[in-house]
Write a structure and sequence with these properties.
With 393 residues, the protein is of the alpha/beta class. The chain has helices spanning 48-52, 65-79, 83-87, 99-103, 131-141, 159-186, 215-228, 244-254, 272-280, 290-296, 328-332, 335-343, 347-374, 377-388; strands spanning 7-14, 17-24, 27-31, 33-36, 60-64, 92-96, 109-111, 116-119, 126-129, 145-147, 204-209, 232-235, 264-266, 285-288, 299-302, 305-308. The chain has two domains: 7-287, Queuine tRNA-ribosyltransferase-like (TIM Barrel), CATH 3.20.20; 295-388, no CATH class.
Length: 393
């Protein structure tokens, strides 16, 4: 029997919500898990020492194939021994394939059966990204979890466009699998480790389910993706302009059909309430730029909803951002001070708000896991959402 790249087990279940454990080649990851986004090899506004601290304790972060491929370039990262060594991060890494970033270029890219041709946003050079290239780049990056190269249809795509996109994604998934397997046999994965805990030490590969908002296409996409066979399965192409209710309809339909013995990953979603609601539907993995992006613009996520530190009402408020939060920012600094930093243009404002936001997201996931294990998740979910929407500030 061949050794697996990752192992996943469900530890406890409470309704459809479940908590589990992913054993990766770089340590264990408890699920449900929120993965901070480190697009260009950095989680903006924070140091890796902070991500590794007890305050945050992020076990896995994201990198992005598209951005790292364009800058600093794969030759640079290869010369530095892979992405882990290049950035100084020893825990698990997941890399997105770049499909979403290429899609977001809009008219600047041309999609064909072979792949996507586009102009680099860095220097305007003509570049070409395909399933094969995406797998080769991610092998050079040495990420622990690799995503197949997919094509994302707009949220309000016509049925015809959604089907074309879904079928192209299915064909690209098979090509991704073929090239990925060949690269693993060739041993060019720069992040490879010695097998431990019954693992192969190789990279894991996740498939992506597409199909826009069309339920029948989503089901067909999942079936075709499962036929190929992957270590985990992701739902892509949501939160791209469709109504929130439509997103939940898709998730309600597709998650119960996803393999129960592997991680279920909802890509690019979302707010704290989105995470809790998706967990209730059986999702295990999440990523989103909101904690870091909003932190840089003066917005904090709290147990009572969002708080804009630039608002004048906080000018002399000596309370922490969130009186229920035990992060190092809330234990030390007031709203008044954080507002002062932000309106003064001090970079420390972004750093501190980013830290708090990441702590809030990661702590929410810890509390979710605990509530599932204790059988209290429905109560936790209800009270969490009620506090967020109470507008108590």
């Amino acid at each position: 029997m061949e050794k697996a790249a990752i192992k996943f087990e469900v530890v406890a279940q409470n309704g459809d919500a479940r908590t589990g454990l992913i054993k990766s080649r770089r340590g264990e990851i408890e699920t449900p898990v929120f993965m901070p986004v480190g697009t260009a090899g950095t989680v903006k506004g924070t140091r890796f020492e902070q991500l590794e601290s007890a305050d945050l304790d992020a076990r896995i972060i994201l990198g992005n194939t598209y951005h790292l491929w364009l800058r600093p370039g794969i030759e640079t990262i290869r010369a530095c021994g892979g992405l882990h060594r290049f950035i100084g991060w020893e825990r698990a890494l997941l890399t997105d394939s770049g499909g979403f970033q290429v899609w977001s270029l809009g008219k600047l890219r041309k999609i064909t059966e072979e792949g996507t041709e586009f102009r680099s946003h860095v220097d305007g050079s003509l570049r070409f990204l395909s399933p094969e290239v995406a797998m080769e780049v991610q092998a050079a990056l040495g990420s622990d979890i690799v995503m197949v190269f997919d094509e994302c249809a707009p949220g309000k795509a016509t049925s015809e466009d959604a089907r074309r996109s879904m079928e192209l994604t299915a064909r690209w998934a098979r090509r991704s699998r073929t090239r990925f397997d060949a690269l693993q046999r060739e041993g060019v994965d720069l992040g490879r480790t010695e097998g431990r805990d019954g693992l192969s030490g190789e990279q894991a590969l996740f498939g992506i389910v597409q199909g826009a908002t069309q339920g029948d296409l989503r089901t067909e996409s999942l079936e075709r993706t499962r036929e190929i066979g992957f270590d985990g399965y992701a739902i892509g192409g949501l939160s791209v302009g469709e109504e929130k209710s439509v997103m939940w309809d898709v998730i309600d339909q597709i998650v119960p059909l996803m393999p129960a013995d592997g991680p279920r990953y909802l890509m690019g979603v979302g707010t704290p309430e989105d995470l809790v609601e998706a967990v209730a539907r059986g999702v295990d993995m999440f990523d989103c730029v909101l904690p870091t992006r909003n932190g840089r613009t003066g917005q904090a996520f709290t147990s009572r909803g969002k708080l804009n530190v630039k608002n004048a009402q906080w000018a002399a408020d000596d309370r922490p951002l969130d009186e229920s939060c035990q992060c190092s920012v809330c234990m030390r600094h007031s709203r008044a001070y954080l507002r002062h930093l932000h309106v003064s243009g001090e970079m420390l404002a972004s750093i501190l708000l980013t830290h708090h936001n990441l702590a809030f997201f990661l702590d929410t996931m810890r509390r979710v896991r605990q509530s599932i294990r204790s059988g209290d998740f429905p109560k936790f979910r209800r009270e969490f959402i009620e506090r967020l929407t109470a507008n108590g500030e």
